[in-house]
Amino acid sequence: MDYSNLRKQSILAKENSYSPYSHFRVGAALLTKDGHVFTGCNIENAGLTATNCAERTAIFKAISEGYKDFEAIAICGDADDYLYPCGVCRQVMVEFCDLNNFKVILVNTEDDYKEFSLGELMPGAFTPNELEKGVVK
Questions:
Q1: pLDDT tens digits for 28-61?
Q2: Which of 9, 18, 120, 135 is in Cβ range 3.0-4.6 Å of 29 for a Cys bridge?
Q3: Number of domains in the chain
Q4: Is 115 a catalytic residue?
């Protein structure tokens, strides 16, 4: 599938970043299976643990609007290399996205990107099914 529009939107979302402490902007664009796009940016806080990543901002916006079926996310940061999602964002993706079919697209520029399945980024992921199986009691 052609995700060029999603890549563009992740680049544009980066412009809304609130990053006065790190001066490192990140944008994300999340595509639902029915074609809606939710964007997010990183939002920092002086109490660093209250900071929210762009990926989670986009996912939480979508969920708060009633969307839970996701196809792909594009992520773009102020980096010379590709910006991979942090562990917390990956775990949130595992909660709401299919390991084999959800695409994670790392964007340097609109035409320079890498694409992975979520499962490739999270081998051996701890999934919601583990709780249902009684792994955690």
A1: 999 999 999 999 999 999 998 899 999 999 999 9
A2: 9
A3: 1
A4: no
